[in-house]
Every structure is written in structure tokens, then in C-alpha cells.
Amino acid sequence: MNIAVLVSGGVDSSVALRLLQEQGHTVTAFYLKIWLEDELSFLGTCPWQEDLAYVEAVCKQANVPLEVISLQKEYWDQVVASTIAEVKAGRTPNPDILCNQRIKFGAFYTAIDARFEAVATGHYARIEKVNEQAVLHTTPDLIKDQTYFLSHLTQAQLARALFPLGDLTKEQVRQEAQRFDLANKNRKDSQGICFLGKLKFSDFIKYHVGEKSGDLVEYETGKKVGTHRGYWFYTIGQRQGLGLAGGPWYVVAKSSEENKVVISRNYYTQEKSRDTFRVSACNWINGVPDEAVLQRLRVKLRHGPECNDAIVTPDGNGFQVRLTQRDQGIAAGQYTAFYKGTQCLGSGVIE
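^ thats the sequence. predicted structure below, dont judge the formating
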């Protein structure tokens, strides 16, 4: 096939590129220019130049053509602006899920030539074709598995996607990088939000939203026990950065109207049980499952290997989710991904 491969400068996408080339496909590498150079210059140096240098070295070694596509405006309009709005509303956004849905498998699809039959990335996920439908599955490496970040892709988006690393663990990918003698074979994995690189999310939020002093209130007594610099810097379940002695303290609630953050030292007590929530804006990759399946789903509330058993019930234009175990990190604005065995069925936004 004629395949467009999204490369980032990291080991994963570089190995994906070389594996497809080795399999005999015609590949063209694409680097997405989404860095917010002007916006972030005050914070320090964004690592895009280093990333692109690695991409160029990998492509030169493999004799693969490389194109740089600017999607800065699309990224700002469809990902960053939405992230800032969610933070201001007191919610906890997930820019990486939006980036996959709206940019890598959205705006990029529109930007490239129709001659490319598929778009490949270095994501850890598997796609199987069943009755001409794309079915999204987890990978053997459950720690690295990235189906959570891909759970809001539509059937049409997944139908054109390829994930060459789907059957590999991270250790195996590292071994492949050594075999290909890639320029970035020993490069560490990147962490953090895609458009910020090594920059702190809190600094980015401070620049766009600012600071506003408010009360830290103890859940059990209702008493003020300290001050904070803005509710938008905190998320449910957070324990770091509260700056109070006698802890650990946890964030259990927050109010955007009152600019108030509610905290507790007894976060896991029964009266703070969190096992039920509502989701909306649901994306079901292969259609809404029948009732019997909804009664026996597994859900992820965040990226990682941890899954919870759940009962999911239709509720108007959304769904009620009841976990069989408590989870202390249910945060409005975050995504819940739904699973049946290894199959990722889709996701919804926590209300």
C-alpha cells in the first residue's frame, strides 16, 4: 500500500515507519507542525527542533521522503482553545484524546493527498477487520496500551488507520530500534501533553487563565484551612501541590462559582464513595452495544492498565455508569473508555 506515516521523533513512530518499509509498502513520513512557538516562547524552549532533527535522521537513513505539514491553526482552534475553555469551567480536559480525534486522524486526513491508502502511527493498539468494520483492540503491553487515547475515533477514522506496533511490547520495539540502528534508538520516551512537550501544564494554564486566590476548605468541618491560586489548577483526587502540613491532603471537590477547593485527609472513607457517574458525547466505534453487553463492561477512567467492572445504563442522550468498585479519581471533563475483553468499544465524557 501507499502509506502516510506520522512520525514524531520518538522511537515508536520511527520503528513503525521502518517495519512498514520492510514489509514492502511505499511509505512517506509526515511531521506535524503543531508547536505553539509564539505562545510558549515565554516558558522556555519547545523541543520541536530536536524532534524534527531525529525525524530527519531516521528518514535519511531509510531513504524515505519527509514532509512537514503545518496544522498550527487547526490545533489551536480544535484542541488548545477547547482545553482552556474546559479548564476555566472547572473541568479536567484530555488534550491528547482531542489531538488524535481532531488532528492526527482528522485534520491530517483532510490535508494529505487521497493517494495515501492508510495513515500509520506508532500507537500501541491493534485493529482487526470484522465484516468490513474496524475493531479496536488492546495490545499485549497493557502498561503501554494506548487504546484509551484512541477511544474517541470514529469507525471512518479507524478504517483508514494502521498501527504497526499492535502486537509488540515496548521492550520488543526497543529491540527493533536497535536492529534498525535508528538515530533515536536510545532516546527516552516523551511524557506530558503533546503540544507542551517538556513544559508544565500548570505554567501554560497560568499564562492563559491567570491566578485568583481562593479558599481551601476541609470537607469534614467546612472550615477554611488554607488558600489556593485558582480552582483550575486542581483536579479531583489530586494530592500533590496543596502546600499544607499534616497531610496527605486530597482534593475531593471544587466549585468554579465560588473559586473554592474542598480537601480531606480521609479521602477513602465510605461517605466519599465514588462509584457512579454520567457520561455524554459518547462515541461507540461499532455501534451502541446491546443491553446484555452494557451490563458487563470494563471501563478505564484514565490511561494505564487499570480497568474497573461496570454496569452501563442508557440515560437520555448519555449513559449512567456504576462501578463495582470505588474510584477516587472521577473527574468531570475526563473520558471514560469502554471495553469488552480486549475490544475497546468507544468512550464518553464524564459529566
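The longest strand covers residues 276-284.
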